[in-house]
Design brief:
By secondary structure, this protein is of the alpha+beta class. The protein has 7 helices and 14 strands.
């Protein structure tokens, strides 16, 4: 209808049905945006409607990931697509998984595919979860802590607290990974919703030098295998800063686990933290429940 989504539909159709898309370096294409639409949308979300049709025709079981990002479209009617599905059958088009494996070069990260775990990363002692706090996941800004969401709902929407533990042992989003930094920090009290005794002990130990805290950042996930030779060593170093071990406190007597940086040996902590606080790492303490995840 009217406008929107045709770029996705045409691309999926061309690739999956045996065509190809070529880049012509000498071509010049102009696209001028008008100050007004020369046509009416008649109150219709045509972009959502058209994109939803393309998703259900071409994306197979991967359609649910689109709907997780756009839950407002979950129950939206999108009309009859039987003729498009029949066209796909007649042309013997490939699956969307084939598209991801061959056109996308197997680098597309899907939060619940080929991972060790996914869901919420929770510290029981504080009832806080790791949270992006509405920050861009590749911004190099600190990750955060926030009161955990209700965990009795199915994972049918992308939230600020949904993370994956990859086979490389990254704690990551689609493009951003938790990254230990060398930037020192002190826990901050910003409101009354805080364990004041814990906070006082934390600040005193930080001031005395017995505890050092480092910020944990939301940074672009490193891919050392896909960078130039000149950048390979730098990428490997950054990659190690994004590796975390989920380590038992004591395999037999204590079921709790620490999250330990492969790079520094420090542990994630909620020490002195409350809702809407930056995520920090400090020296591991197996007796501290604020480091249990």
């Amino acid at each position: 209808q009217i406008w929107g989504g045709e770029n996705l539909e045409m691309s999926f159709r061309v690739w999956q049905c045996g065509g190809r898309i070529e880049i012509h370096p000498c071509s010049h294409v102009g696209h001028i945006f008008r100050d007004f639409h020369p046509y009416s949308f008649n109150g219709i979300d045509s972009y959502g409607h058209n994109t939803l049709r393309a998703v259900h025709v071409w994306m197979d079981e991967f359609a649910r990931y689109f709907l997780m990002l756009h839950p407002e479209l979950h129950d939206r009617k999108y009309g009859d697509i039987s003729s498009r599905l029949e066209l796909r059958k007649q042309l013997k088009c490939k699956s969307f998984k084939w598209y991801l494996d061959h056109v996308y070069d197997k680098r597309k990260f899907v939060y619940d595919k080929n991972v060790l775990a996914y869901g919420w990363v929770k510290n029981k002692a504080s009832d806080l979860c790791i949270d992006v706090l509405n920050r861009q996941e590749t911004s190099d800004l600190p990750a955060g802590l926030y009161t955990c969401e209700h965990m009795n709902h199915p994972l049918e929407a992308i939230t600020n607290q949904l993370f994956s533990y990859s086979r490389h042992r990254e704690i990551r989003r689609e493009e951003g990974c938790l990254t230990i930094s060398d930037e020192k920090a002190e826990p901050k009290a910003e409101d009354d919703d805080i364990d004041h005794l814990s906070y006082a002990k934390t600040i005193n130990s930080a001031a005395s030098g017995t505890s050092v805290f480092h910020k944990v950042l939301l940074s672009p996930c490193e891919e050392p295998d896909y960078v130039s030779d000149s950048d390979h060593e730098t990428s490997l170093t950054k990659f190690k800063e994004q590796i975390w071990r989920h380590e038992s406190v004591h395999p037999r007597s204590n079921p709790n686990r620490l999250i330990v940086s492969e790079s520094t040996g420090e542990c994630l902590t909620t020490s002195g933290a409350h809702g809407n606080t930056d995520l920090l790492a400090t020296k591991c303490d197996k007796s501290d429940p604020r480091q249990y995840w």
